[in-house]
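Let's study a protein:

___
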Amino acid sequence: MVSIEPGTLYVVATPIGNLGDMTPRAVDTLRAVDLIAAEDTRHTAGLLRHFAVGTPLISLHEHNERQVVPRLIEQLTSGRSLALVSDAGTPLVSDPGYHLTRAAHSAGVRVSPIPGACAAVAALAVAGLASDRFLFVGFPPPKSGPRRSLFESLRKDGATLVFYEAPHRVLDSVQEMAAVFGESRLAVLARELTKTYETVHQAPLGELINFIAADADQRRGEVVLVVEGAPKTPAKGLDEEARRIASLLGDELSVKQAAALTAKITGAKKNAVYQYLTSELE
């Protein structure tokens, strides 16, 4: 059994599809707290019934969060324990809860994570794209103009990009991504993760358009899009070997030292090496 601390807010992850992904610690926590704040109490009630959890529920969603938070903080500061859950996955990842957790910190309330499933992280893990640096963007704007502007702002970002998207807009979004990022940019459609009809399909954006357009099932369910980051622009005046040596030395030395030593080893211009290394750090 878990040890529940009075006056603590527990942020509890729940399954994104497969109920087998609910952790024992999450179940024990939901049973032991005094109250559960849920994005959709009807949805969460079904989950609680499945795991034989009888803890009372209170609704906390994007339309009432600001109004409900003061009452929940009052409960927490009086010593009651509270769990926060969303409809699926980890709360606050494109779900309500920000105002509650911020207010809890401001009130000196302990906030404790109960980790578990997260669709964005699950998709990134299976995408086969670089994961050392990624940017979670969430849902793009529903209208084409603002959506395309968002993609334009991300066009040169070298981080792997992770998006959520509504199934009825996924084809439009991928088409606009191809237009902005280029049809050759590698991407992954991760759909219905952990569920019966799970799809993980990697392809250049131009090909991914055809894959989604050809199969109506790929426009149903929960969708995560993972897009490769922008390729790095080769430094002018530096060949591949000079860049390789500069990067290796840059891991161990200061930029100034690495640039000077690379120039000495390869004959490259020190200023060019310095500019390359500083661009790598941006």
User: Anything to note?
Assistant: The two ends are 46 Å apart (CA to CA). The chain has eleven helices and ten strands. The mean pLDDT is 94.
